[in-house]
Specification:
Length: 160
């Protein structure tokens, strides 16, 4: 209950600060921001961006605290989360070691082709394999998601 009150007051404080910056920005007008004369953009926009970063960081920290607290107070949820993370790691390992290869960037000596990046560097074998693994992992997870939705719909139709 105390944490709820503290968070409520923190949200109120951040809202008041944001409202102050908002009205200040409205008061000086947007021409100063567009022209960036005398550093007015740094005075009006930068504090709002900083406030957004602080709000995002606080939100992430609070969510992580409550998620971890919820996991450790409910052993069944902790077990389900562990199984889910383990299955995700298994899909990642299968994607990286079983499906992804680096055959596209072996180089001219081995008969492959060299891929040049925007900054002039060449794509390495490891980076190519990670890209391939990420794509295969996405495909596997998308297929599982679509299959789960279809299975859920079909099982509901069968039960009726």
């Amino acid at each position: 209950m105390v944490l709820h009150k503290a968070l409520k007051y923190l949200v109120l404080l951040l809202s008041l600060i944001a409202m102050g910056f908002f009205f200040y920005t409205l008061a000086i007008g947007d021409e100063a921001i567009e022209l960036n004369t005398a550093g007015s953009q740094a005075v009006t926009v930068s504090p709002l961006i900083f406030l957004a970063y602080v709000t995002l960081a606080l939100t992430i920290v609070i969510v992580l605290i409550f998620v971890v607290k919820g996991l450790f107070t409910n052993p069944a949820a902790l077990k389900k989360a562990g199984v889910s993370v383990g299955l995700l790691a298994l899909v990642a390992l299968i994607s990286y070691y079983g499906l992804a290869d680096d055959s596209n960037t072996v180089g001219f000596i081995e008969g492959g082709k060299i891929i040049e990046l925007d900054n002039g560097a060449q794509l390495t074998k490891g980076t190519s394999q990670w890209i391939g693994a990420s794509l295969y992992m996405f495909y596997i997870l998308a297929a599982v998601a679509v299959g789960t939705v279809v299975w859920s719909g079909v099982s509901k139709l069968i039960k009726k």
